[in-house]
Amino acid sequence: MSLNFAQLKTDCQPTTLEDAVTLPAYLYSGESAYELDQKAVFANSWQCVGHVSALQNAGDLIVTEVAGKPILVLRDHDGNLRAFYNVCKHRAGPLALENG
Questions:
Q1: Separation of alpha carbons 86 and 65, rounded Å
Q2: Which of 36, 66, 86, 93 is the most exposed place for a label (fewest CB within 10 A)?
Q3: Rounded CA separation 16/11 (Å)
């Protein structure tokens, strides 16, 4: 079931403190709420994918997923941290399979 944005707008109208109620349960559970969180929160903000100690040396990498997207984080030869989609543009396969 997808979220009904017209209903969402109605359910989330500003109110006074005396008339305040909690948000409806459908905003906290279910596949549609999960998908909305993935798009609105996780895909649009910084996410912790690991500790910097796992990326001490040039070439060290972390393979993870953020908002349903495969991500590769690595330390380059200049010492900078870089993040990329973990997908080869030519073959659509993963660039790396495990941390290391």
A1: 9
A2: 93
A3: 14
- The pLDDT tens digits of the residues spanning 50-86 come to 999 999 999 999 999 998 899 999 999 999 999 999 9
Q: 21 forms bridges with which residues in the sheet?
A: none
Query: If we measure between CA atoms, which residue out of 44, 22, 25, 21 comes closest to residue 33?
Result: 25
3-state secondary structure the chain: CCCCHHHHHHHCCCCCHHHCCCCCHHHCCCHHHHHHHHHHCHHHCCCCCCCHHHHCCCCCEEEEEECCEEEEEEECCCCCEEEEECCCCCCCCCCCCCCC
